[in-house]
Structures are given as structure tokens and as C-alpha cells.
Amino acid sequence: MMQKRIFSTIALWAIAVLAIVYGASAGFTLIVCALALGANYEVCQLLRKAGFEPKLKYIQVSTVLIFLLSGVDFYRYTNLLNACALSQSGADIVAALSVAIVSVMALRDPYGPYFKKTVLPTAAIIVAIPFMLKWYVVVGASSGEYVDIMLAVWIIAAAKFSDVGAYVIGAAFGRHKMAPNISPNKTWEGAVGGVLSSAAIGAAISWICGMYNIFPQALTPLATAAASLFIGAAAVVSDLLESLLKRRVGVKDSGAAIPGIGGILDLADSLILCAPLAAAMKYAFVIIYLNA
Fold this sequence. Notes:
With 292 residues, this protein is mainly α. Helices cover 76% and strands 3% of the residues. Strands 1-2 form a two-stranded antiparallel sheet. The termini are far apart. 47% of the residues are buried. The model has no long low-confidence stretch (mean pLDDT 84).
């Protein structure tokens, strides 16, 4: 199991690196969009097991439109701050319209189960997955610069290495259960190991990318490591929320697409709550940069 997980992790990061190196912002946008589409599919499958009927095709079309607008290089037409704002606004409008339209669908059966079983889960998926994950693209792809892409990659890496660290440390030293009613295998030792792993990978990315001038100079390895502690903690909570959903429908993994890891949703779970942190850090960096 451990070997499969390590192999899958290396393979996935290799694919991501190739997409970014050869596709730049478009490649990064495509990777995150594909992740969202896969997570959408799997969460729909989970909710159907619980008796809900979300509209998958509608969700997927909305997701593609959200990421198309998030990944537009507005920087060539305006400045850095406006580029982020325009990417965000366009994607937010699509998300809001998608939720509004699916809400109107409730009028076809206002007193039946349609609203609860179809409208609510469809709107919830749009808000919880593509709307959240698109922040990585707003942060990394709206300007078309590798510095911004690596800023988003840092957040993603810190979140995912929180998973890896929690798994490895928890398996070796875990003794105290963190949330036995939600995820019996998760321990406090593993959570601490995951958060420290986030800090370590954050510092490494800052140091390595800083040598090639593809990382914000203001984010030193020490500053990046400190910020990564918060990312790692958010990743732990985000992962627990997905575990709660799986617990409610009685499954261990959301799918079997990735050997050793599980499904696409299992890959995306820790990234969801970290996405707003990515946006907050990007805007803080932009403001500092503009006032420097």
C-alpha cells in the first residue's frame, strides 16, 4: 500500500510538472480543472448512494466555464491586481449563475423532493469543488507568469504533503485517535507530522525556486515554512470533511482511480479548504508588491 501511494504521488507530480513546464498557465489550469471534474464525478456517485440525485452534466459544464474564465491571462490587458480581480469576478459570475439557474429548477416541483435531492446537492457541489479549486488558477494562471504559478504550486504541495506526512508519521507513530467517529485511522501524531511536512516542503520550494527567480523574493524559506503550517492545518480539516462524507455513505475511498490513494476526490479533498488561503496569500503578496 505504501509503495503504491509513493509511486502514485511521484507519477502525479511528474505529470503536473510536465504540464506546467510545457503548458505554463494553460497547463496548470488544465490540471486543476481535470482534478475538479474528477472530484465532481466521484462526489456525485457518493451522494447517489445516499439517495440524492445531483445533475452531473450541469455541474461539469459549469466547472469548465468557471476554469476557462479563471485561467484567462488578463494581465496582458491590465495590471497584476486587476488581472486577479477580473479572473475572480468572471469565475464568480459563472458560479453564481450556475447556482441561480439550478435553484430556479426547483419551481418544477416546489413541494416535492426535487429541491432537497437534486437542487441542493447540485448547488453544493458547484460551490464546494470548482468554485473553491478555481482560486488556485486565479492565483497561478491569471497573469501567465511562472512566479505566480509556483505560488499556487507551493500551496498545493504544502496541502498534499500534509496528507503524505500524516499518513507516514501516523502509520509509524500514531497512538492517539484524532476523530475516531469520522476517520478511525487518523491520529494526532499523524496530524502534527503532516503539518510539519507542509512546512518542510514549503521551505524547500521557496529555496529551490528562489534560486531560479521563479518564486516571490519576499517569501523567504522561513516565511514560507511558517505560512505552510497554516496550510497544513487547513488541509487536515479539509481531509476530515471528506472523510465525514465517505463515512455517511459507508465507503473507505471515493474511488479506485489512483493506486494507493483511492479516487480523485481523495486526491482533491485536502486542497479544498486551502484554496481560500491561496487567494488570501496572493492578494497580500500583490498589495505588498505594489506598495514596495
